[in-house]
């Protein structure tokens, strides 16, 4: 071991991100409800575009990503020049931290916020600042109190993962307006498409110079395996992010599949309404078993158990039946299990198994 070779400060403080478990040793016919994936997968048009892209494998992708940015702009009514695309919305979060935070700066996020905010803050040597939530919901006053002249970025996911809760546009506006001048508010809209009629905070971006939004193709678009996300914000900030974006960060395959996906809003609408139907069904089925959850605006439910022992025991029981859900101890919710809303048969299967665990069936 060469002690003279050391990583940058902060990096050794990063706890490795663990994705949702996908397998159980010795078991087939598994139902995976641990990663908030869309059970219906991507639209057929997106799959066709993916297949067609095989003929372009020898070609470098367009550095300006114009086709995908135009499609996103058309569908959402945006300025194409202020859209930036990345390897998942994770990469947009990375760009923001790289561009705007460093040693002695603070990056603020909430108690049960997405783990990548902390990881990216530490990766650039910044100080992560975690702010308490109120009843598993973003607390704007607590965030504003935590901000100071070192704050450079404030991340909130709306709806939040893994809580599923959301704050109103008026609350988000109050947050944006109350931040110190040098801070950017990042609205993580990974689950925005699941909320009927929600623009993810776009109107706030248009009215202010300090708000950026991130979005993903991994959730409702069913393209988590392909890794595509995008961001939108003031021209000045997007211009900065483009300076550090690798010119070929997205392949032709990613760009073409995502472009076809965003242009197929019928698929998105079908997935949203089916998710809402099964989410309500699952929440009610669990409530009848004495397992409460907050009203979720995403494609998952955060089931609350009597304590971490019961949550752990239920998780083990479900795994023994081939059902994988997500333990969320790393999100400071050890008494909870996050259950992705699957298709109808998966939801029925998981509710039935939890009833058996509770000794009801
Ligand atoms: C709140 C939130 N933000 C961002 C992401 C990252 O998504 P991706 O990098 O797949 O676009 C996720 C994924 O689980 C998430 O839950």
Features:
three-stranded antiparallel beta sheet, 361 residues, binds pyridoxal-5'-phosphate, 12 helices
What would you note in describing this structure?
With 361 residues, the protein is of the alpha/beta class. Helix content is 38%, strand content 16%. The chain contains twelve helices and twelve strands. The strands form three sheets. The chain has a seven-stranded mixed beta sheet with strand order 2-8-7-6-5-3-4, sandwiched between helices. The chain has a three-stranded antiparallel beta sheet with strand order 9-12-11. The mean pLDDT is 96. The chain binds pyridoxal-5'-phosphate. The site of pyridoxal-5'-phosphate (PLP) has 13 residues, from α3. Pyridoxal-5'-phosphate (PLP) binds next to α3.
* Shape verdict: globular
Radius of gyration: 21 Å
What helical percentage do the residues reach?
25-40%
Mean pLDDT: 96
Q: How much strand? A: 15-25%
Number of strands: 12
Number of helices: 12
- Biggest beta sheet summary: 7 strands, mixed
Tell me the distance between the termini: 57 Å
Stretches where pLDDT is under 50 for at least 5 consecutive residues are: none
**Helix-strand sequence:** EHHEHEHEHEHEHEEHHHEHEEEH
Strand adjacency order, main sheet: 2-8-7-6-5-3-4
Bound molecules: pyridoxal-5'-phosphate
Category from helices, strands and their pairing: alpha/beta
């Amino acid at each position: 071991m060469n002690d003279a070779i050391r990583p940058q400060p902060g990096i050794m403080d990063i706890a490795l991100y663990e994705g949702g478990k996908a397998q159980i040793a010795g078991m087939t016919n598994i139902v995976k409800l641990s990663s908030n994936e869309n059970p219906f997968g991507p639209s057929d048009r997106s799959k066709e575009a993916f297949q067609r892209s095989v003929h372009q494998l020898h070609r470098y992708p367009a550095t300006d990503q114009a086709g995908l940015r135009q499609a996103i702009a058309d569908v959402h009514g945006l300025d194409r020049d202020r859209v930036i695309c990345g390897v998942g919305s994770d990469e947009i979060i990375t760009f923001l931290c790289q561009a705007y935070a460093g040693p002695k700066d603070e990056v603020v996020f909430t108690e049960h916020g997405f783990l990548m905010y902390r990881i990216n803050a530490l990766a650039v040597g910044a100080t992560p600042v975690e702010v308490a939530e109120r009843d598993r919901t973003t607390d704007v006053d607590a965030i504003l109190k935590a901000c100071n002249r070192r704050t450079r970025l404030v991340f909130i996911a709306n709806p939040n993962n893994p809580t599923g809760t959301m704050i109103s546009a008026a609350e988000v506006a109050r947050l944006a307006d109350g931040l110190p001048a040098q801070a950017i508010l990042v609205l993580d809209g990974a689950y925005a498409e699941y909320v009927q009629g929600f623009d993810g905070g776009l109107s706030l971006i248009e009215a202010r110079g300090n708000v950026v939004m991130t979005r993903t193709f991994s959730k409702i678009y069913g393209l988590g395996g392909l890794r595509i996300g995008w961001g939108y914000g003031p021209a000045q900030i997007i211009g900065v992010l483009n300076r550090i974006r690798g010119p070929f960060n997205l392949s032709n395959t990613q760009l073409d599949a995502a472009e076809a996906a965003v242009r197929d809003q019928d698929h998105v609408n079908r997935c949203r309404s089916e998710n809402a139907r099964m989410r309500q069904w699952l929440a009610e089925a669990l409530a009848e078993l004495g397992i409460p959850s907050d009203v979720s605006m995403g494609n998952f439910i955060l089931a609350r158990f009597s304590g971490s022992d019961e949550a752990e025991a239920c998780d083990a029981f479900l795994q023994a039946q081939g059902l994988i859900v997500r333990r969320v101890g790393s999100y400071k919710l050890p008494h909870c299990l996050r259950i992705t809303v699957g298709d109808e048969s998966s939801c029925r299967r998981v509710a039935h198994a939890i009833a058996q665990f509770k000794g009801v069936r």
